[in-house]
């Protein structure tokens, strides 16, 4: 028994050369059928949304709610809320530890 017949007897799904040629031709056909994408077509497809997008961008720029002062004051308020929450958690944990240690020592 030669080496190639032994390998072919072990192969459960033997591949033939004509199968490979058919696969290659299908891949080549698929590559040929794809149209070349263009930016002009993309802009044309998005044309109905341009009005809303540009109006939204302009209103966000000129809105008082998105000015830098308003954003900074909101961030500072949120930071203060976070600090007070941390302070509250620290106080509760310190009181509970003191209570627990008082019971253990007494």
TrEMBL record:
Name of the protein this chain belongs to: Uncharacterized protein
Lineage: Eukaryota, Viridiplantae, Streptophyta, Embryophyta, Tracheophyta
């Amino acid at each position: 028994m030669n080496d190639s017949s032994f390998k072919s007897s072990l192969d459960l799904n033997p591949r033939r050369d004509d199968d490979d040629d058919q696969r290659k031709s299908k891949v080549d056909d698929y590559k040929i059928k794809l149209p070349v994408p263009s930016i002009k077509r993309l802009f044309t497809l998005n044309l109905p949304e341009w009005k809303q997008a540009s109006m939204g961008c302009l209103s966000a720029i000129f809105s008082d709610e998105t000015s830098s002062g308003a954003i900074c004051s909101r961030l500072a308020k949120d930071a203060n809320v976070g600090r007070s929450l941390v302070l509250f958690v620290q106080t509760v944990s310190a009181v509970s530890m003191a209570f627990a240690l008082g019971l253990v020592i007494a």
